[in-house]
Specification:
The chain is mostly helical. It has one domain. Helices cover 61% and strands 1% of the residues. It has a two-stranded antiparallel sheet. Strand 1 and strand 2 form a beta hairpin. The longest helix has 29 residues. It is elongated.
Length: 295
């Protein structure tokens, strides 16, 4: 029942993608598989503004990572207080952690809508196999070509035939894209995210190969985007040792608090002598020669 609800909600997006695929296939002349690749490129171009926000959010998180670690260390025994202070810190420094997930969230409806489009194409392909005369009113051609590189049928599950090759491309591209988009994560979380694609293969292999082709293409786009970003974007500057701290960040043990007006911290007073005897000026003693006694 929930699947029908999702299909009804995404039906306008499904109709839009079907019309775009029909236009690319019939007007431009690309096969159905390469039409999916072209549709993926169009979607990623439309998501460029969200991608820019994602990159800025990741850079901001990297820049403020030392201060956030101080907050986590200070309130490590009180998780509720730790989350409250982190949220205040995000608000004061205009950090939006959710911005790094925006492109992925925006692609989720596209993924589901394209699934329904490919399911319709699969049903039409079965109709064409049963009665070739029905292909012309359905797809506008007598013998539609649903193959990619002459090997993979995009309407069949990705686990059949050469679809395993597409699954390998998907897994490699997903691991590479995760490597570029998880720069702010810890090493353990990063390894976990890079290992998840191997788990997802058990579910994705049941989807139509055209859907896996879409996801592999968007992963390759992400990899290229990550390479260009690393070369063109400036590196995150290291925080200044006298950087102004807010009330959220905890100073290190034994570290003096810097002045709020940006002035240098006051010099420490000279150490006082331990005892008064050490502070007293040393008196030079002159030894007098003893006079020889007269004979």
């Amino acid at each position: 029942m929930s699947m029908y609800v999702i299909a009804s909600i995404l039906s306008p997006l499904e109709d839009l993608f079907r019309n775009i695929l029909d236009w690319i296939h019939q007007s431009v002349g690309l096969p159905w598989a390469w039409s999916i690749v072209a549709l993926t490129v169009m979607v990623r171009i439309l998501l460029v503004p969200l991608t820019v926000k994602q990159i800025h959010s990741m850079q901001s998180l990297q820049r403020h990572a030392p201060q956030m670690k101080e907050i986590q260390k200070k309130y490590k025994t009180d998780k509720r207080k730790q989350q409250e202070e982190l949220m205040k810190f995000y608000k004061e420094n205009q950090i939006n952690p959710a911005a790094s997930c925006l492109p992925l969230l925006a692609q989720f409806p596209v993924f589901i809508a394209l699934y329904f489009v490919l399911r319709t194409l699969s049903d039409q392909a079965k109709t064409c196999q049963a009665d070739a005369a029905q292909c012309v009113p359905l797809l506008g051609e007598a013998h539609p070509n649903f193959h990619w590189l002459g090997l993979i049928d995009i309407t069949q599950p990705a686990s059949t035939g050469w679809g395993v090759l597409l699954l390998v491309i998907y897994a490699g591209s997903q691991i590479a894209s995760t490597f570029f988009m998880s720069a702010t994560m810890s090493k353990g979380q990063r390894y976990l995210m890079m290992g998840l694609p191997l788990v997802f293969i058990t579910f994705i292999m049941r989807f139509p190969a055209g859907l896996v082709l879409y996801w592999a293409t968007t992963n390759l786009w992400t990899v290229g985007q990550g390479i260009i970003t690393r070369r063109l974007m400036p590196k995150t500057p290291a925080p200044s040792p006298f950087q102004r701290r807010t009330s959220k960040s905890a100073p290190k043990d034994g570290e003096p608090e810097p002045a709020d007006d940006g002035a240098k911290p006051a010099e420490a007073p000279a150490p006082k002598p331990a005892t008064a005897q050490a502070a007293a000026p040393q008196v030079r003693r002159v030894k007098r020669k003893k006079k020889r006694a007269r004979r």
